């Protein structure tokens, strides 16, 4: 980078930091020389401060990227060494500290790729020591207790983001009273559309900044969005500004894919093979717990319309504290790889870096992920059957996406996943309206709403665990689709207040038990049929389809609520349309013709390992006979 360009970027960073502090102080003082008609005193100043901070951080990030591309940043080849922060950060951060102590140091932490040297053990194994000489087998893998800290932080982010997304659902009547013109279903659609856009960008963010950088960026957007939505607690709470709520919802929606789409990457980087499924399931199901918390806490905490701003302020404080926790404790990768496939990939990585150290920027996607474009003969022998394909860069060329969509059965799994997401998101959004129409109060809505999400999570674990053991993905999926369509049709009749046949509350719980497990099972089914392609890419594509379909249908559910109201109860036609969508997905899934490629590969691994054990046993017996003869 030219000296003049670097100087300009540094000056821009410093000036933006100074401007951020200036506008922040004006906002705190409520300076009102400028007259604004819509926003309250100080709101524009807070927004200007946030924009200045963003400009400053963008300038520093740009400088970091350019210097890395020019090869000026010191590259560290060893996977168990700390990554040094780029030297270009030092001047900008030190200058900014004189005025704003809390701005760029945060981003300095964010850019620094931290690989812990002491987590649970003071000894680090060199990569070569974990390889044995026979047949590429591996031994001596060490896992680190800090993996549970990373998992807890990632789960907390998923938990809090969906709590924010559905925070209006159980209290929408009180929220509409406090914020005139508020439409909770519109906010959910805004959230899901923002989520869709960010999901497209998530793989590139991971490639550029790594796992820690992606998660930290997402937590930062969650914290900023939560504070924009709620205002600044104790200084300038948001009492009536609908624009700030919408802007905060957009930022929170943009943040979620940065941690919602990375559980598979986290589990492959930190967890041994036999812990990955449960680790991924815990992180993903934290979303359902977050939605349940939104119903339970909304019912318990918010009693009046005036309680809504304080409630959102509480969520803003939680988001900020969680961001600090991620900033300080979330780590990039363990000192040594945790599994067979990760170790093989790490050796490939060292070989590639020995050839050309500048290749480090191409390997930032995952420190332990297999790089399939390498020649195995150039980097050593290992058992390729154990390579999981833990993470795969998501490009958007048709040739890349075609690899997934041409696999028989992948589209079926995609549609099943999206259908389940549409039903769960729609019912969660309108839970209050559905139960209030039957005369149920706020506390009752909170109990049923929280129970709905708990049933979704519990049934996902129970049915998902059964399916993993039996490997009968098709049978379970088609059974759940049929049962879900039937329960939705019955629920449309339960909406009638004169109906004494069935109560709506337990019908909603049955829907949760039949429709909820479809998402994790459809994800596993998608991974089965596209193997050896990355399960992370499968999840990203399914999330894209689910968010786009949900964002499109959620507002329509409200539009059809009074259609043919002389013959059907309120929301009756809406439920029938939802039932029709579910039925069409069921019919389409009946044409499933995929094969369980991952299961075949696992059987092949078992046979290969059994053959190796037999060979070793024969070799030992021959050695014993030879010794006896001597």
Automatic annotation (TrEMBL):
Molecular functions per Gene Ontology: transmembrane transporter activity
Location in or out of the cell: Membrane
Residues annotated as transmembrane: 7-32, 44-65, 311-328, 410-431, 443-467, 473-492, 504-522, 571-596
Topology relative to the membrane: Multi-pass membrane protein
InterPro entries: FLVCR1-2_SLC49-like (IPR049680), MFS (IPR011701), MFS_trans_sf (IPR036259)
Transmembrane in keyword set: yes
Chain intervals for the UniProt region annotation (Disordered): 365-386
Keyword Transmembrane appears in the UniProt entry: yes
Gene Ontology CC: membrane
UniProt keywords, alphabetically: Membrane, Transmembrane, Transmembrane helix
Pfam families: MFS_1 (PF07690)
Ranges annotated as biased composition (Polar residues): 365-374
Coiled-coil regions listed: none
Name this protein carries in UniProt: Uncharacterized protein
Species this protein is from: Triparma retinervis
